[in-house]
């Protein structure tokens, strides 16, 4: 058996060579930095370095648990990330089902390209666009001004800011989900539709009894795997859009870690907060993959 494996490895050396840069990148930027976790358990002093800094154990864990700001940003993170998942989940399904009914290939591909394009743009670019749209002289306030509504700074309001974050995130990413579901729709046997036509089923009944059941496994799978994003509210998006006026509702774990580390220079506390978040995320991801395998038999390896 070992001889067979060695032969296969020899024959497939080109594939191993192709994957080597990705493996090296993963080791350099994902595994080697794990050494920095020690900062969470030390009174980190840059002049002494990680190893020579004094060990304080769980001091910063106790300190973190007593900080009201940590619980506030945790609630904000779960609230924003949870609504992104909950409200953003059905959008690509609905769009994919509608595009599946389009018979003009040119129009279908054009719509796919348009809705998919924002996924490739960074939040730095989109944030500038969103700031202009929702500014006091932007399109939104100009449109509402036609109805006699006074200009309002929506990105500076604690009530409207989370909803703008959620809506713009859905707008940016639903095109990617649509492509996934459209790919799943191509796997449905056309013979099922032909049989339903003979039985007198219209397009609505075909969608209800053939199309939707045909993509249910993918829907369940994506829903389960999204559990790993419960604490990922979108650092780049919020960091480029939030301001001091919306800290109460817009500050999340990632922006809090950034601020504590680089503005307050408390690297030990920021590392501890990031470590706890990573541990919880890891548990959720493992649980999600376990559920995915139990329900849909999906496996990564």
**Rg of Cα set:** 24 Å
How would you classify the helix and strand content by structural class?
A: mainly alpha
Average residue pLDDT:
86
Summarize the biggest pleated sheet: none
- Low-pLDDT windows of residues: none
Q: Please tally the helical runs, counting DSSP H or I stretches of 4 or more residues.
A: 16
- Gap from first CA to last CA: 20 Å
State the assembly state of the protein chains: single chain
H-E order: HHHHHHHHHHHHHHHH
CATH architecture: Orthogonal Bundle
How many β-strand runs? Answer: 0
Transmembrane segments: 20-41, 78-99, 120-149, 161-188, 208-231, 272-292
Domain ABC transmembrane type-1: 74-288
Membrane topology: Multi-pass membrane protein
InterPro entries: MetI-like, MetI-like_sf, UgpAE/MalFG_permease
Question: Any overview of this molecule?
Answer:
It is a single chain. It is built from 16 helices and no strands. It is mainly alpha-helical and 301 residues long. The chain has a single domain (58-296), classed as MetI-like fold. Helix 4 crosses helix 16 and helix 8 packs parallel to helix 13.
Which keywords apply here?
301 residues; mainly alpha; MetI-like fold
Architecture blueprint of SSEs:
Elements: H1 2-11, H2 13-31, H3 49-52, H4 59-65, H5 68-88, H6 90-100, H7 105-116, H8 123-133, H9 139-145, H10 161-185, H11 190-198, H12 203-225, H13 235-241, H14 247-250, H15 253-262, H16 267-296
Helix pairs in contact: 4-16, 5-10, 6-10, 7-10, 8-13, 12-16, 15-16
